[in-house]
Structure to design on (161 residues):
């Protein structure tokens, strides 16, 4: 792990909220001149701490869609089965996120489709591929309540909220 100081944490916090901020404005927000701020930013990128920049898109304003979370259970826990499932998840554009879990279920998937019929066809296709999916549990998002930012200050200090 790379050692981060308070300024690094502040840079990361600002970028987490405002990824399109200009480098000049970023430097001003973290009380640095432009060159040292730019050097820190490059160091964070090179270290892989900042892995990408992207926009949050409000889908409800541009396209009808349904967002679904799926708890997936595999039929066994052999390495090949898990790898097959993960490769299959990579192939589907509708699967936005896929996390391997410890505990009761094996994977949590976040899926975005045009409608519930499209979702079901995708799941049926996944089941038909024989990738080890034994059972799945579908949870449809009815409304977003909170979309958070990383609690960098709490994580770095080790304090609970």
């Amino acid at each position: 792990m790379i050692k981060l100081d308070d300024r690094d944490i502040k840079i990361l916090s600002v970028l987490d909220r405002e990824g399109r901020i200009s480098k000049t404005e970023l430097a001003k927000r973290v009380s640095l001149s432009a060159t040292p701020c730019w050097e820190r930013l490059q160091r964070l990128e090179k270290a892989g701490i900042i892995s990408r920049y992207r926009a949050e898109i409000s889908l409800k304003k541009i396209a009808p869609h349904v967002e679904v979370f799926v708890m997936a259970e595999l039929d066994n826990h052999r390495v090949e089965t898990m790898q097959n499932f993960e490769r299959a998840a990579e192939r589907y554009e509708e699967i936005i996120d896929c996390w391997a879990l410890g505990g009761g279920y094996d994977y949590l998937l976040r899926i975005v489709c045009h409608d519930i019929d499209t979702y079901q066809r995708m799941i049926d296709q996944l089941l038909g591929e024989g990738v080890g999916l034994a059972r799945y549990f579908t949870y449809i998002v009815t409304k977003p309540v909170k979309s958070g930012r990383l609690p960098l200050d709490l994580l770095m200090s080790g304090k609970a909220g």
The mean pLDDT is 92. The two ends are 23 Å apart (CA to CA). The helical segments are 6-17, 23-29, 34-46, 79-91, 116-128, 152-157. Residues 6-55 form a domain with the Arc Repressor Mutant, subunit A fold (CATH 1.10.10.10).
